[in-house]
């Protein structure tokens, strides 16, 4: 889905913003959740389990924790729940990051200069969460 997939009839939106998802600059509107932006970009994975399985949002209300994504902003990098976190201008969002880093509290190595479909953020044991 692209920006044209959004409902437009009688909808008021925040200001247009740009952010980066997996190395690609995308457009969104202030006030939208990261989850909404990911869905509009046809993303099919928020993070990967230690067994390398993609996981995607399920409840969309902050309960299931299946929408964890890695966000970098203002030199700060952290995990957030995409469904309850507003998208902000200049956020860098990385999907497909290995969840073992969340569990271990370690910083994933994310090479923003490589193709995100081939980038590796794996680490830890080969067990599912
Ligand atoms: S989709 Fe369930 S917590 Fe975000």
Automatic annotation (TrEMBL):
Domain of life of the source: Bacteria
InterPro entries: 2Fe-2S-bd_N, 2Fe-2S_ferredoxin-like_sf, 2Fe-2S_ferredoxin-type
Stored CDD domains: fer2
Transmembrane segments: none
Any Pfam family matching the protein: Fer2_4
Molecular function (Gene Ontology), one example: oxidoreductase activity
Record key words, sorted: Oxidoreductase
UniProt entry tagged with the keyword Chaperone: no
Protein name in UniProt: 2Fe-2S iron-sulfur cluster protein
Organism: Arenicella xantha
């Amino acid at each position: 889905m692209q920006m044209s997939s959004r409902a437009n009839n009688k909808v008021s939106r925040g200001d247009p913003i740009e952010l980066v998802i997996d190395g690609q600059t995308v457009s969104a509107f202030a006030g939208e959740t990261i989850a909404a932006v990911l869905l509009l970009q046809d993303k099919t994975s928020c993070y990967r389990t230690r067994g390398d399985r993609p996981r995607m949002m399920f409840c969309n209300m902050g309960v299931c924790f299946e929408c964890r994504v890695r966000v970098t902003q203002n030199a700060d990098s952290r995990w957030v729940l995409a469904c309850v976190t507003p998208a902000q201008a200049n956020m860098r969002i990385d999907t497909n990051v290995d969840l073992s880093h969340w569990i271990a509290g370690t910083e994933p190595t994310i090479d923003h200069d490589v193709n995100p479909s081939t980038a590796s953020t794996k680490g830890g044991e080969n067990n599912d969460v």
